[in-house]
Amino acid sequence: MTLSLSTLVPLLLATLLLFIALRILLKGGMLAAIVRAVAGLALIGASVLLFLAGYDLLSYRALLQEQTVVTLQFQRLAPQNYRVVLVESDGEQHRYQLSGDQWQLDARMLKWHPSLASVGFKSLYRLERLSGRYADIRQQLQAPQSAHQLGEVPTEFDTWLILKRFPGLRTWIDAQYGTATFLPMANGAIYEVKLAYGGLIARPVNLEAKAAVSDWQ
C-alpha cells in the first residue's frame, strides 16, 4: 500500500466529515433535530464514500516521472509455453506461465489535474494484467488463452470505474488504461517496462530480447 497526498486526502476528508456528522447528530432540539439528522446522515454517507475511495486508492502506487515498474524474464518450457519471472520496482518477484508467442502488460492509471499535481498530488498506477497471445490468428481463436491478474483484486468499490462512468470528474482526475504493446517471448529474453505520464513503454534489455524483437519486426 502506498501512502501519499493522493491517498491520504480522501481518508482525512472522510474522518473530518464523520466527526462533523456525529457532532450534528448528537446535539439536542426538535424541528432542527430533523434537519440536523438529514444533514448528519448525508455527511456520514459522504464520509463512507470517501473512506472507500481512499482505501481503494491505497492499492495504487505513486507515479514519479518516468520510472521502471517491472522487468520480465522469460524461460521457454516447451514450444509456445513460457515461464515468466516478473520483478517489481521494489524487488518483489512473481512467477507466471504464459502460452503463445507474444506478451502484453496492462495497468490502470489515475492522473491528477496539473494544478493539483503541482501541490503534491502524484499520479497513481496499479498493474492490472499480464497476458499472452499467438501470432497466428487462427491459433489465437482456438488455442487455450493465458492471462493473469496482477496485484490486488479490485474491491467492490472501484474508484477507477466510478471515474470512468462520470466524465465530469475528469476536470480534476482522469482514469486511463495503459497497455504495453505485444512483444515477442523468447528463451532468456529480458524486458523492462517503464511507466510515463503517457502510458506504458516496454523495451528489450538483453541480446535475446533484442534479437526476438528484430526477428519479429
Topology:
Elements: H1 5-26, H2 31-57, E1 61-63, E2 67-78, E3 81-88, E4 93-99, E5 102-112, H3 114-117, E6 123-133, H4 137-142, E7 146-149, H5 159-165, E8 173-184, E9 190-196, E10 199-204, H6 207-216
Helix pairs in contact: 1-2
Written description of the protein model:
The protein is 35% helix and 37% strand. It is α+β, with helices and mostly antiparallel strands and 217 residues long. The chain has two domains: 5-57; 61-216, no CATH class. The strands form two sheets. Strands 1, 5, 6, 7 and 8 form a five-stranded antiparallel sheet that branches. Helix 1 (5-26) packs antiparallel against helix 2 (31-57). It starts with a helix and ends with a helix.
Summarize the entry for a quick read.
With 217 residues, this protein is an alpha+beta fold. Helices cover 35% and strands 37% of the residues.
Number of domains: 2
Percentage of residues in strands: 35-45%
Give me the number of helical elements: 6
Number of DSSP strand runs: 10
The whole-angstrom Rg is 22 Å
The shape is elongated
List the keywords.
single chain, 217 residues, alpha+beta, 2 domains, five-stranded antiparallel beta sheet, 10 strands
